[in-house]
Fold:
Amino acid sequence: MLAVVITRPGGPEVLEIRELPRPTPQSSEVLVRVRATALNRADLLQRRGHYPAPPGVPADIPGMEFAGEVEAVGDAVQLWKPGQRVMGLIGGGAYAEYLVAHERTLAEVQSNLTWEQAAAIPEAFITAHDALWIQASLRPNERVLIHAIGSGIGLAALQLARAMTAVPFGTSRTADKLERAKEFGLESGFVVPKASIADDGKQWSATGAFDVVVDLAGGAYVNASLHALAPRGRIMLVGTMAGAKGEIDLGLMLGKRVRMTGTVLRARPLEEKIGVTRAFAREVLPLFVRGILRPVIDSQFNLQDVRRAHERMESNESFGKIVLRVGD
Structure:
């Protein structure tokens, strides 16, 4: 099979297309013929040598989400058969023509979705669903603030907030992304052209404090979010694009009785990954069939153009998911 290989830590130039042995499904595993995958910030970090793949997945093939057809199944597989359309999350190895995944980490691709649309769903919508609906226990009419609204997870969280009849707001480095996000239900937003400060949080909440913050930025955004929260508000820390460290006002956190939760999917045990995938399939997938949710694709590249795809993500100009088409 053909696969993208990280030849050494570095920039997009270290990515190469190579021919590698096709994996073989074991026991409860499914062999998937990958038709499309999508980029994530973790792919860039892994390429630079800062985010190694977890045990049990290819160490040098990036890619954490995919859509494709079941090619073959292990002896113990009960849920799938060859020819079915599936999508899912994996610890790594999705930039390839084939991969193996546990059968219970897969979800069905509905007939109204293209391969490219399906590949743009798993990481963004499973992460946002788990963070917002399950862990933050979002309820109707609550006010939600989403940092990095133009990202894949940001746009997924925005749509899931609307689906819950909550009221979503967002932040972005540019006004253009805020305006484009209104097409997907954004109530209003705030431009943050430079590092966030505490006074930003006070400005964000000038017309009303927020019940939930989905923070994909980290760094100084966390403290600013504290100032924007309502009493007993919840912060879901999902990413650290703006920095992995920052000071927070502990007195304010105590006084407001804030709950702050860090969340990540890639490093979770298999059973937890199965749990979030099954909940997503049950609660979220039907909303794509009904047109309530839509995958948002910024751009599409062929697998051979993976370097250009990484350059696009590093530009920070993308809005939604960057998709790689795999094979014919």
Observations:
- The longest strand covers residues 29-38.
- The mean pLDDT is 95.
- The first helix runs from residue 41 to 48.
